[in-house]
Amino acid sequence: MGNHPFTLNDKLVLVTGASSGIGRQCAITCSRLGAVVVLLGRDENRLSETMEAMHHKDRHESVQIDLCEFDRIPAMVKNLTQRLGMISGLINCAGVSTTLPLNALSVDKMNSFMETNVFSALNLTKYVVSSSNFSKEGGSVIFLSSVMGVVGAKGKTLHSMTKGALVSASKSMAVELGARKIRVNTVSPGVVETPMSKSAIYSRNKEALEFVKEQHPLGLGEPEDVANACAFLLSEGSKWITGTNMIVDGGYLAK
Ligand SMILES: NC(=O)c1ccc[n+]([C@@H]2O[C@H](COP(=O)([O-])OP(=O)(O)OC[C@H]3O[C@@H](n4cnc5c(N)ncnc54)[C@H](OP(=O)(O)O)[C@@H]3O)[C@@H](O)[C@H]2O)c1
């Protein structure tokens, strides 16, 4: 019997932001679907908590790294492939978010957000998809964008700038890497309950939270809603899907 199209059996998958929220759930979901997962994040304790929740914990590894230390990335990726084999999947979840009016933006802030949300992910992807590190059979790269990469909201200029950049850069990567059967897509969530969104929403008043909920016809999302979409995009079930932006938003953009 052939493999189920949605299995990730024995694929080597890297997940950034695996110490929290959506990245953590992506790592756990991939492990349940059979992947060997490398968890990437900065906070060692929270990486260990993710590892504890993984299926077959002994198969996976975690690497404590700040992805903005760009020069460390090539050796880190090489070390992984020399020991674990070729990579078939990458989920770029690491990121930061903020709400700031336009008049509060400085060039330093713009640079820092681009570095964390865009440059670090593109830099990592560049080394992961190099022909000496990525599976000859091809595979899948995913970037976590956001509905804010497609539409706007007050105070979201900085965030939208970085998330829109991921949507458009992915399309060119999809074209460039298609011949090697490497697919590149973005996933754009609405508001998902994670430490990131909680620090943004719950710090405001109850009415602000109610307003955000009302914007999502299916209510706020859970990390697994996004992780399941990412797992599909990693699997062979999506082998003819590339250069797309998959909206996973409980209906936020349907209005
Ligand atoms: N939650 C939402 O509502 C929502 C909506 C749309 C899009 N998204 C996107 O989904 C992704 C995950 O969001 P989340 O809600 O899961 O956020 P989260 O819980 O705050 O987690 C963010 C993750 O990014 C990692 N990270 C940040 N800067 C890093 C760096 N320089 N190097 C390495 N890792 C770094 C953090 O690692 P450490 O904690 O170890 O430092 C953490 O694991 C983000 O790209 C976010 O923009 C989220």
From TrEMBL:
<dbReference type="InterPro" id="IPR002347">
    <property type="entry name" value="SDR_fam"/>
</dbReference>
<dbReference type="Pfam" id="PF13561">
    <property type="entry name" value="adh_short_C2"/>
</dbReference>
<comment type="similarity">
    <text>Belongs to the short-chain dehydrogenases/reductases (SDR) family.</text>
</comment>
<protein>
    <submittedName>
        <fullName>3-oxoacyl-[acyl-carrier-protein] reductase FabG</fullName>
    </submittedName>
</protein>
<dbReference type="InterPro" id="IPR036291">
    <property type="entry name" value="NAD(P)-bd_dom_sf"/>
</dbReference>
